[in-house]
Design a protein that fits this description.
- With 343 residues, the protein is of the alpha/beta class.
- The chain has two domains: 2-78 and 305-335, no CATH class; 91-292, von Willebrand factor, type A domain (Rossmann fold), CATH 3.40.50.
- Helix content is 40%, strand content 23%.
- The strands form four sheets. Strands 5-4-3-6-7-12 form a six-stranded mixed β-sheet, with helices on both faces. It has a three-stranded antiparallel β-sheet with strand order 1-2-13.
- Helix 4 packs antiparallel against helix 5 (150-158).
- The N and C termini lie far apart (64 Å).
């Protein structure tokens, strides 16, 4: 598994085109100055040792060295080994509603971003648990298979938006069924929990039956309702307007608490509403802590090998080469004729 330990430093590569444009502008300015000084051919004859290509070669070498140094600073690593480790924890599948109604702003900054913030904090507090992620709207998909890799979990969480699923709706039943399948083998002795985060808008399938099926398999279904019962209009990103129905009326999305409570009750779990405080997260953590913990065996990448040395060494060699390349032609080398034959 290849990765960069300091991946944020790769943003420095965006300076490369800036450097290239700046260099080209400087060279263009020099040519204009030379043309104003006098006849170009005559000036070139007066400066026989000036090289036109060497400055460009030196600049190219420095740019390659810069790229290599940035890559080295980002610390490329390669995990060459896998190992099975045993952890004491539970298995948690998260079903996250990403329908357009989750863009409503009755909680700050909006329902979806608030849910992502809460999940990110929950993942930060995990140490021995497995976590997976399912996203749903009118359909449900596994975004992240259940894993102990919390870095990947947060990375996938940050990329979630309503654009991932074109079919609109709130298929909570499909999300629950997908979460059940995502746990994999039923042989695991670890306690299993499903957390569904939704506003309950446009409920389409039999989520209560799916929650009952999960409970029959020994899983606990927790539902986090996000939003307000009185509702809020749904912004259209980038327009400053709100979504409207076919009659031209502004659509108001309301939290369906009754339906969320029914699902949680059928799944032998708990319902809690998420607002702008941490109440929902604390309540969920307390419930998850009550679940019995068993040994979980999982495969992880171990012994990441640092690869930055190769990039740094190549950059150093290029800088040394650049140091020995002069902007002017070397008179001694210019007089040498390696292919001259004696009479």
């Amino acid at each position: 598994m290849f990765r960069f330990a300091n991946i944020e430093l790769l943003w420095l590569l965006l300076l490369v085109p800036v450097f290239v444009v700046g260099y080209l502008m400087i060279q263009r300015h020099k040519r204009r100055q030379l043309a104003e000084f006098g006849d170009t051919e005559l000036v070139n004859d007066l400066m026989p040792n000036v090289s036109k290509i060497r400055p460009t070669i030196k600049f190219g070498i420095l740019m390659v060295a810069y790229i290599l140094l940035v890559l080295a600073a980002a610390r490329p690593q390669y995990g060459q080994k896998e190992k099975n480790v045993k952890r004491q924890g539970i298995e948690v599948m998260i079903g996250l509603d990403i329908s357009n109604s989750m863009l409503a702003e009755d909680v700050a900054p909006n329902r979806l971003d608030r849910a992502k913030q809460m999940l990110s904090r929950m993942i930060d507090k995990m140490s021995e648990d497995k976590v997976g992620l399912v996203v749903f709207a009118g359909e449900a998909y596994t975004q992240l298979p259940i894993t102990c890799d919390y870095v990947s979990a947060k990375m996938f969480l940050n990329t979630i938006s309503p654009d991932l699923i074109k079919t609109q709706g709130t298929a909570i039943g499909a999300a629950l069924n997908t979460c059940i399948r995502s746990f994999g083998s039923e042989d695991s002795q670890a306690s299993r929990a499903i957390i569904v985060i939704t506003d309950g808008e446009n409920h389409e399938d039999d989520a209560v039956a799916s929650a009952q099926a999960a409970a029959e398999k020994g899983m606990h279904v927790y539902v986090v309702g996000i939003g307000k019962p009185e509702g809020s209009p749904i912004p259209v990103p980038g327009t400053g307007e709100f979504r409207k129905d076919r009659a031209g009326n502004v659509v108001v999305s309301k939290l369906n608490e009754e339906m969320c409570q029914q699902i949680a009750q059928a799944g032998k779990g708990m319902y809690v509403r998420c607002d702008n405080t941490n109440t929902a997260m604390r309540a969920l953590e307390n419930e998850l802590n009550k679940l019995a913990t068993q040994e979980i065996e999982t495969t992880i990448y171990a012994d990441y090998n640092e690869q930055f040395q190769s990039f740094a060494l190549m950059a150093l060699l290029l800088i040394i080469v650049d140091f020995f390349i002069f902007n002017r032609k070397n008179k001694s080398l210019a007089k040498m004729d390696l292919f001259k034959t004696k009479a």
